[in-house]
Amino acid sequence: MRISFAVCFIILFIASCRKDKFSDKPMLKLKSVSPSPVVPPGSTLVFTFDYTDAQGDLAGVPVCVEKLSSLSPCFDPGKDPHFLDTSGYFKISADLPPTANQKGEIVITLLPTDYAGDKRCNDNQPSEEAVFKFWITDLAGNHSDTLVLEPLTILKQ
Fold it and tell me: Do residues 130 and 152 lie in contact, with contact meaning Cβ atoms separated by under 8 Å?
């Protein structure tokens, strides 16, 4: 009986120590998407994430966003409903203190012109299925895993 209790205690102790460890690789975890799973015409999309980073070097880094659409590919490349934000339009706050084992929240807000607008290929389609992907790279060059969200149905006006 004592041995079983000791083994259970050791397993619980090891398991509890592991959950507080931070990785050098930044981590993103989705908290919420609003509205979801159907986006009414003209709605603002809000994505909320939790992030962690052991090195604490995320101040001012861009959050990369990719949208893959069911309407892609388009015959007119200028209207292809796919975009990749490499310009750093969405950034983690530059005044984030450089502390080890950082964690916090990121909120990405996309206006209709950001996720649809002139990027729509076929105006005859009443909706599109869109998959959004998010990732970050810290100042040391460590890449988070790409967070691939469930498809959203975006209704057109």
Answer: yes
